[in-house]
């Protein structure tokens, strides 16, 4: 070898003398594994996907052959290479890392994204850099600029970082067409994809190249992972900590255990699954005095950069983060990664733990800290699959029609006018649109023409630019749903606390509600929809408050849930045959990354369970009163699909709605009394799997998810101005659904909801397996430990399992101050709105003396009207029935019933359950009310 490169490192010999000299100067004498395997292939100019752990030099792997080719090129005047990243934050890191190479090799490297100044944009157009680091959306804008189009004609290389992130998103589908538009301009160019983890590299390779030949270069990730799953055991120290941290001893043990891990390592990334958990856990470490920063997407850019820089400089011992840190943002060396709670997916664990051990060839070490029994078994399955390299496949958005609409406008912007079939040919070269048929394409074109986005000349079969094309295209550069971001401002100081997504504000935020941000608790005092500002006030005593909102869960895939079922089956049979629990746990621990004490915790539900165990080959249906639990280890999407079918068909039988909630291992239904065990079994056994798509579509028509998605898709088609969910009524959304039902917008909204939330084909296969006996269907007439085990998962971090006295006092004061409508159902002539605390122990009608008094919510005047109406419709009949059930409770239990009925989301059925439960003191009564309120807050999106 020459130029100071160590002898025997053949990969670097594929590069020219200038780059090899720079390598020597930089101190890179030995190539890393991905460099050794990929550089010769890339130096030959071949398209390739490079899959390797974070921190193994993937950026240099992709860019060194590109720099080499550019340094050797003499007849190029425009941009030679694009480095495309999914995050602007990555752009900043790439600029810092690539500038040195550019300066050393005499090549100009520049960055362009949404925040680039007009002066810098103009400079890039007039004097293009050799390498431009940019985002997918900015590429869309660049393709429409006349000077930049000229600069892009010289493109020879495209490097796409974190390609797995884009493969599973509409942004990526849009990018694939953008690359085909670029190919029209520049001819063929080399395509290089970089990824830390991919479950199906050949499919992602086809995504990258448009289905053309793609070399796959993989460096084994699983063998570099050292993962341990731990459920911390509660100690005496945790009992003491729980009071100072305002939480239960279990959560205190988690905080203490993680704090010890942080002390044992120099630099730790602590991942959580939601921003709310990040804020809640951050506040606990703040109380403990741990030197830790918080990093997530709701914080300002300046706040995120500040904690990144402080962590990189060693000023922080740990960085508590969400998925904002999964991708390759450079925060320096990381010794250890902690994942709080199950990561839910194998790919997430690989990405996150892969951030540790950035020094050459070091093993990445991580600890998963679990919070309940489901969590523990799930984490065991995920850790094993991660170390085996069994990563979930990327779910590519095949044929998304709003992306087609967006890119038709882009093609028209590129050319001014284009023949329709030529546009169709370019679109279908992109891999996600290979199966787009001409009829769908024509429908989208006609919709765009009707919306004045483009001009369709049917005689000439051409698509032409019109006045609205420019405005539409630049308003829709991104395929990320266009939702507002509300500023959160402290009412006292006027300073910005952070931001909230529109969906959060639409579905949750009302004055008086409590949430956590920046590690502190806030009460909403006002919402200004015009200015998009949520005004809040800080809460001085968090012990007296219960946050009301729980974020949407990351979906657990079928393979993970099935392995949890397999664990239950194997261990369950041993336990039911009389084996000792600790012996079984030791046996499981030999195959999984956990100690016996953690496995014992994970098997606690199985140990207590009697009868058939719900596992990977058995579904167990439990009945208890009006609650049905279908125990099914099939993951979120299949359970969501099956749950929707059961809810729709059982509701149809009963003539009323059926509430539903799902997790990866259970479907929980609250059914009308007329629904029996036989009805549930009959629906599962008799539903034709081939009818599933139609049944699902029917059920989705009543779901807010489809209506909200339809509004977003219609905006991307130019049919609606910017969608604002909060200001719209359910009636408005229903009208939108009716108006757009026979359009490609409806088809796309339905496709996207199915893609993101459901698994129709897999659920149809499951029904077939049940019906032919491959999956057993068992029933039991009571709740089981496994069936009820899911109710503890998702418990708010800030709320002790048994609420303390201050919380109970707060709940009691709130309910006593609330108002109810008291209405006589005997004479039907008297009603009054009154505070609960002013209601008599046994309410009675002052006109007729009857104690048949209904207690109703203060906004339920229509129920009173329904009771007094003789000729009732179906809805009024339901209201009347509910009112009489309420009156029966008040007549039997007096003011106690009024209190229960005044709680949020507690109807007559649940009020009766609360009242009839034996308890020792009044606090227990209010604890039961609080539990029901939390359950309602968690499941209310499934009602109605």
* Radius of gyration, in angstroms, nearest whole number: 30 Å
| Major sheet characteristics | 7 strands, parallel
Write the CATH architecture name of the largest domain.
3-Layer(aba) Sandwich
Overall pLDDT confidence? 85
Supply the CATH superfamily name of the largest domain: P-loop containing nucleotide triphosphate hydrolases
| Shape type | globular
How far apart the termini lie comes to 73 Å
SS elements, strand count: 29
CATH class of the largest domain: Alpha Beta
Strand fraction equals 15-25%
Q: Which spans have pLDDT < 50 for at least 5 consecutive residues? A: 1-8, 542-551, 722-731, 792-804, 940-944
Structural class: alpha/beta
Number of helical stretches of at least 4 residues: 40
Domain unit count: 5
Family: Belongs to the Lhr helicase family. Lhr-Core subfamily.
Keywords: ATP-binding, DNA damage, DNA repair, DNA-binding, Helicase, Hydrolase, Isomerase, Nucleotide-binding
Domain Helicase ATP-binding: 39-216
Protein name: ATP-dependent helicase
Provide a short characterization of the protein structure.
The chain has 944 residues and is of the alpha/beta class.
List the helices and strands and how they pair.
Layout: H1 10-13, H2 17-26, H3 33-43, E1 48-51, H4 58-72, E2 81-84, H5 88-105, E3 109-112, H6 118-126, E4 131-134, H7 136-142, H8 146-152, E5 157-160, H9 163-167, H10 170-186, E6 190-195, H11 201-209, E7 215-218, E8 225-230, H12 236-244, H13 249-264, E9 268-271, H14 275-288, E10 292-295, H15 301-312, E11 318-321, E12 336-340, H16 346-353, E13 364-369, H17 373-387, H18 401-415, E14 417-419, H19 420-429, H20 438-450, E15 454-457, E16 462-465, H21 467-475, E17 485-490, E18 496-501, H22 502-507, E19 514-517, E20 520-528, E21 533-538, H23 558-576, H24 581-589, H25 596-602, H26 604-608, E22 618-624, E23 627-631, H27 635-654, E24 659-663, E25 666-670, H28 677-686, H29 692-700, H30 704-716, H31 730-740, H32 744-757, H33 760-771, E26 776-780, H34 785-788, H35 805-817, E27 819-824, E28 831-835, E29 853-856, H36 861-868, H37 874-893, H38 895-902, H39 908-916, H40 922-939
Parallel strand pairs: 1-6, 1-7, 2-4, 2-5, 3-4, 5-6, 8-13, 9-11, 9-12, 10-11, 12-13, 17-21, 22-26
Antiparallel strand pairs: 14-16, 15-16, 17-18, 19-20, 20-21, 22-23, 23-25, 24-25, 27-28, 27-29
